[in-house]
């Protein structure tokens, strides 16, 4: 179909691994398949067993393939903000073209210049985002291609992460038989999806409550400015229920999902049956007692995130807090967050059919992020080498091709048009060979 493309997002979470397949038609995303599998080999958002993680990824991919009725070969994967560092970067080059017209290759070259820096051996550059370009002193340019200039500069945002974490995720995707199109910082993609344009501009906080950890991200001026990680999430609430009520993890998880409430004041005194270890018959526990266990852990998470956000004065921004993630499905969690954060709080739930649960927000955000990247973004990403070569080739070719003027000449010999055509073809072939090298 014309102007259509298939995108596959891979969300490797601590609790579950989700694969979402969407078709983009004229920049409109339509979800056509979803796969989900229980996570194995992950702890607090980090891969600790590659083989188990690979098996879970393959299971989720297989489900998505069956529902979408396509074969999945390439994915866009998200990476958590664990030990993420955000810094500004600048690059400057002289325009290489003899006509001094800026091309896509110049954009990629200035991005490469911005990447030149000394990093500790344990860290790796994860992503680079262009903020603006400057051509011969004229700044604030978003796309310099086609402009005339001698000097090209770029200001951008650089993200670095632990090399081990990046390598392990890439290794899992490779062993699962998939090609990685691009790695995306999870809170960056989530902010683009969950926040309105005004919230991204004036500033807001995105809180992602997952199973293994909780993440708070500050988005301002359409950029990710700060992240805070708390190494506790929904799984810790389940363990608390298991320990306090002396029941198995499976029963505790079932009780949390069926009867859980994050606000003990809103919970009822209704009795619920809990299977207790060592008891032949289920023990009756009130919903209020269950809610008190969940509330205590949730407040602890919110308090720690608030302490980190207060350090950067994040609550001074007018956008408030937007929460998402699987844990936010608990009733009463928004009211508790309003009490702790003391600011406006709302819940984000995807509105696509089949994805109307906050746990699917992260996977959907990866597709939304990659589908809305501009050609300039792709060229800058290509300087990293984290972009699939086919994606980069299409973008570079499209951005560097110039319309050729057609002239009609009368050849003096019959063999001349053939030689001219052959020489032109050889020259074009050599140009592209040298270009991609």
Descriptive notes:
- It is a single chain.
- Helices cover 38% and strands 28% of the residues.
- It has 437 residues and is α+β, with helices and mostly antiparallel strands.
- Among the domains are: 85-164, Dna Ligase, domain 1 (2-Layer Sandwich); 229-347, Nucleotidyltransferase, domain 5 (2-Layer Sandwich), CATH 3.30.420.
- Strand 13 and strand 14 (223-230) form a beta hairpin.
Number of helices: 13
Name of the level-1 CATH class of one domain: Alpha Beta
How are strands sequenced across the largest beta sheet?
3-2-1-6-11
Q: In CATH, what is the homologous superfamily of one domain?
A: ATPase, nucleotide binding domain
- N- to C-terminal separation? 32 Å
Uncertain segments of ≥5 residues (pLDDT<50)? 395-425
Give the overall pLDDT as a whole number.
Answer: 87
Strand content: 25-35%
- For the record, the CATH architecture of one domain stands as 2-Layer Sandwich
Rg on CA atoms, Å: 26 Å
Silhouette: globular
Helix content: 25-40%
Number of strands: 18
Biggest β-sheet: count, sense, barrel?
Answer: 5 strands, mixed
Please name the CATH topology of one domain: Nucleotidyltransferase, domain 5
Helix-strand category: alpha+beta
């Amino acid at each position: 179909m014309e102007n259509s493309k298939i995108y596959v997002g891979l969300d490797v979470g601590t609790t579950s691994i989700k694969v979402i397949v969407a078709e983009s038609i004229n920049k409109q995303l339509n979800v056509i398949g979803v796969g989900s599998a229980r996570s194995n080999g992950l702890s607090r958002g980090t891969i600790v067993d590659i083989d188990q993680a690979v098996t879970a990824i393959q299971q989720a991919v297989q489900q998505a393939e069956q529902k979408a009725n396509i074969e999945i070969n390439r994915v866009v994967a998200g990476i958590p903000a664990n030990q993420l560092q955000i810094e500004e970067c600048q690059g400057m080059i002289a325009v290489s073209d003899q006509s001094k017209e800026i091309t896509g290759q110049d954009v990629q070259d200035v991005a490469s210049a911005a990447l030149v820096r000394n990093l500790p051996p344990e860290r790796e550059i994860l992503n680079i985002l262009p903020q603006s370009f400057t051509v011969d002193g004229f700044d604030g340019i978003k796309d310099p291609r086609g402009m005339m200039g001698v000097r090209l500069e770029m200001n951008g945002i650089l993200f670095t992460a632990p090399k081990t974490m990046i390598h392990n995720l890439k290794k899992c995707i490779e062993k699962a038989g998939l090609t990685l199109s691009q790695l995306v910082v999870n809170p960056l993609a989530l902010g683009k999806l969950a926040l309105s344009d005004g919230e991204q501009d004036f500033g807001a906080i995105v809180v992602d409550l997952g199973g293994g950890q909780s993440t708070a991200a500050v988005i301002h001026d359409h950029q990710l400015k700060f992240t805070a990680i708390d190494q506790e999430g929904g799984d810790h609430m389940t363990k608390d229920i298991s320990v306090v009520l002396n029941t198995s993890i499976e029963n505790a998880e079932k009780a949390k999902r069926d009867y859980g409430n994050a606000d003990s004041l809103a919970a009822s005194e209704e009795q619920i049956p809990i299977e207790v270890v060592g008891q032949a018959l289920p023990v009756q526990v009130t919903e209020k007692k269950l809610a008190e266990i969940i509330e205590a852990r949730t407040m602890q998470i919110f308090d720690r995130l608030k302490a980190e956000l207060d350090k950067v004065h994040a609550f001074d921004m007018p956008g408030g807090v937007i929460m998402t993630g699987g844990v936010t499905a608990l009733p009463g969690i928004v009211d508790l967050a309003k009490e702790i954060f003391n600011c406006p709080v709302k819940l984000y739930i995807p509105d696509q059919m089949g994805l109307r649960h906050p746990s699917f927000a992260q996977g959907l955000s990866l597709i939304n992020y990659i589908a809305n990247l501009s050609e300039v973004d792709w060229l800058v990403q290509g300087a990293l080498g984290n972009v699939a070569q086919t994606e980069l080739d299409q973008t570079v070719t499209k951005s560097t091709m110039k319309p050729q003027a057609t002239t009609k000449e009368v050849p003096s010999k019959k063999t001349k048009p053939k030689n001219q055509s052959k020489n032109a073809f050889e020259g074009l072939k050599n140009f592209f060979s040298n270009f991609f090298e």
